[in-house]
Write a structure and sequence with these properties.
Layout lengths: L1 E4 L15 E5 L1 H16 L16 E5 L7 E3 L25 E8 L6 E3 L1 H11 L8 E5 L16 E3 L1 H9 L4 E4 L8 H11 L7 H4 L7 E4 L14 E3 L10 E3 L3 E4 L3
Parallel strand pairs: 5-7, 6-8, 7-9, 9-10
Antiparallel strand pairs: 1-13, 2-3, 4-10, 4-12, 5-11, 11-13
Helix pairs in contact: 2-3
């Protein structure tokens, strides 16, 4: 089978609303670090100069949020109070949710804002089928072309409440997007709310997770490669971070060879 990478990298060199910090100890610096640590913690003296080329191992240290790069949101991210009991953290989610048949819905022609249930039904027809229970549904919005720029966080399309419920009604438990969020951009939602003070336009996709347990995959990439692929499997296991509301994932599609 072919393996198609659906992930965006964690990259400290590109623009993020919460900047990533990435520091690297070179293999030579790693050797000195190890020698100092052994002396301070275990009372052992070791001269790193005896190592080949004076090098041991490199060491990367990162400071970032769990929502940087491609990641899976857990129910506990959506709020502390739900209609179905205590919301589960990412380390508590069943792994069989994240290795399932996939379906890409193309909504890349939609303007900044939200798409509704009728637009998703049109996407079902275009894809040739509707989601089946436990399918991983992936929204191709085209926003991934803006990744690494400020517009990636302001110019994209999300789901409204009825569209989210349509997918959940069909038994979907994981919904993904190549955009920054499954909801509309922050600025768009605030403007819509200010028109008539309707709270239903504020984070409807995320807040649906307070009523019904499901996960989101945000900041996917390369979904256009799957638009003409009728059958594939999504593998998107989240990193097991104890008591966290999200976990990074290396999402891929497994496509059978003809």
């Amino acid at each position: 089978m072919r393996i198609i990478d659906l992930s965006t990298p964690i990259d400290a060199t590109v623009w993020e609303p919460n900047p990533t910090e990435h520091t690297v100890l070179s293999p030579a610096e790693g050797a000195v670090h190890m020698a100092e640590s052994m002396r301070e913690n275990h009372g052992l003296d070791f001269d790193p100069a005896v190592l080949p080329d004076g090098e041991l191992l490199s060491l990367d240290t990162l400071r970032l949020t769990t929502h940087t790069g491609t990641h899976v949101d857990a129910p506990s991210h959506y709020g502390s109070i739900t209609e179905y009991g205590p919301p589960r953290h990412i380390d508590q989610m069943p792994l069989n949710w994240f290795f399932r048949p996939g379906l890409v819905l193309d909504v890349s022609d939609a303007p900044v804002g939200t798409v509704g249930a009728d637009r998703l039904r049109q996407a079902f027809d275009h894809a040739g089928r509707a989601p089946e229970p436990m399918d991983v549904v992936l929204l191709h919005t085209g926003a991934n072309t803006l990744a690494g720029t400020p517009k990636y966080f302001t110019d994209f399309v999300g789901l409204d409440g009825p569209a989210t419920d349509l997918l959940l009604d069909r038994g979907v438990r994981v919904i993904g997007t190549d955009a920054f969020s499954l909801d509309a951009p922050f600025g768009h939602m605030i403007v819509e709310y200010q028109k008539n003070a309707d709270p239903s336009v504020l984070w409807p996709a995320h807040f649906a997770g307070r009523r019904r347990e499901y996960c989101q995959i945000e900041r996917l990439n390369n979904l256009e490669a799957l638009l003409d692929t009728p059958r594939f499997t999504v593998c998107c296991f989240p990193v097991k971070i104890a008591n966290a509301g999200a976990g990074w994932a290396r999402a891929v599609a497994l496509v059978p060879e003809e």
